[in-house]
Write the structure tokens for this entry.
Amino acid sequence: MMQNFSGRVAVITGGSRGIGAEIAYGFATCGADIAILDLCTEDLAKPVLDRISETGVKVFFYTCDVTSPEACKETVAKITTDLGAPDILVNNAGITRDNLIMTMPDDEFDAVLNTNLKGSFNMIKACGRGFIRKKHGKIINIASVSGLLGTAGQANYAASKAGVIALTKVTAREFASKNVCCNAIAPGFIETPMTKELDAESYLAKIPAGRLGKPEDVANLAVFLASPMADYITGEVIRCDGGLAM
Ligand code: NAP
């Protein structure tokens, strides 16, 4: 069923490509105005911004490094001026720096934790007051099956995503009485720039659905979680992985 998000403002971090771009587009097709945050400059996000504009909603781009609490705060203030206070926050910005523990450089452990976990915390904090004032909010954190399974070679990434799952539950508890829901999506193997170097064939053998995931698979779930149909769902982690991590 097509959802109606008109009058809603959705913020998507890391939204210039991959899963984030598809989530932004999914929300736009439901009528939400869109704020895309990413590390890059606006020109690199142009194809995604044009695709969203074609749906007829407003779309703004902000260069914002989510590891900086100040940048997150300033960007949310700008969004509030440009579009209105956010109703939906998708913490999607994420990086991998895979290595076995014994060979993992310390700075790569820190970089992944800072982006994936601290970045999500920074954005929740930056948007929280607006949600409370509006008495409405939907927070969707993009975790990973790696955070459930503890994938070898991903000590930093898996720990960050397990942290995102715990952060989701804490946020759900702290904001539930304010009519704010917080849930996590744990994607499996989704075809994006992040996974293009990985050996897709070896994953395929482990996916009961018999295919790799598409960004739209995750976007569809995000639309559902942001919709009133999911108003009584909070603190939940939903896998979107074709059965990979069952
Ligand atoms: P992607 O194509 O690499 O896109 C991630 C986006 O996040 C990029 O545009 C990236 O910017 C941006 N970003 C990175 N660090 C940032 C920062 N500090 N501040 C703001 N933006 C930042 O990845 P994806 O595959 O779409 O993944 C999206 C999310 O899904 C991530 O959280 C990832 O962990 C999660 N996920 C993906 C898969 C998968 O199979 N693809 C599976 C499970 C979970 P740059 O372009 O400048 O790097």
Residues 9-240 form a domain with the Rossmann fold fold (CATH 3.40.50.720).
